[in-house]
């Protein structure tokens, strides 16, 4: 059987409304605009993040560098109220580390390990025969970490003390660790004049390292 179909009527049924086309087009434009905006915003966020990361990294590097310079440059970078070079009674020098730092009398309020080098009250000054001068200092990265590089020292390295217009030269004879228990055991030859340095052990928060040196000469 053959059925006659009205072609014009069929075309009208398949025709899409112009308003629908406009609506779909508007939606597509909105969606496309959203994705373009999203990508743009995300790219900017990444740029800002990278920029801030670089800023903080640079500042951190500057702080680390400044702290390291303060450690190696003796009194530079130390709060002014925590030092008075005119009251130093002597200097500790470590040639291998290019280190020089003054110390105060045992009874001085500036003789404080949190502010400067500490001359332990039970120790002797360099001019005492068979005595033992004990000097303690912090390790780390803070401004008062004067002994941060002592771990680089070895047996036979030289230490010098300038005191009363004389230079006392010592040679390291022993290096050992002790637990942090509030006091230290000093193992030394009682018949020799000695210099003992004490600081926290590098990369070990539970122990301290002791450097025993014996007097070699006085100039």
Give structural notes.
By secondary structure, the protein is of the alpha+beta class. It folds into two domains: 9-72; 80-218, Sortase, Chain: A (Beta Barrel). The protein has helices at residues 7-14, 18-72, and strands at 90-94, 99-103, 118-119, 132-136, 158-163, 166-179, 194-200, 207-218. An eight-stranded mixed beta sheet has the order 2-1-5-6-8-7-4-3, with no helix packed on it.
Tell me the distance between the termini: 132 Å
Largest β sheet strand count, sense and barrel closure: 8 strands, mixed
Work out the helix count.
Answer: 2
Number of structurally distinct domains: 2
Q: What percentage of amino acids are in beta strands?
A: 25-35%
> Radius of gyration in whole Å, from Cα?
37 Å
CATH topology of the largest domain: Sortase, Chain: A
Spell out the CATH superfamily of the largest domain.
Answer: Sortase
Secondary-structure element order, as H and E? HHEEEEEEEE
CATH architecture of the largest domain: Beta Barrel
Mean pLDDT: 78
CATH class of the largest domain: Mainly Beta
Sheet with most strands: strand arrangement: 2-1-5-6-8-7-4-3
> How many beta strands in the DSSP annotation?
8
Helical residue percent band: 25-40%
Outline the low-pLDDT stretches.
1-8, 40-74
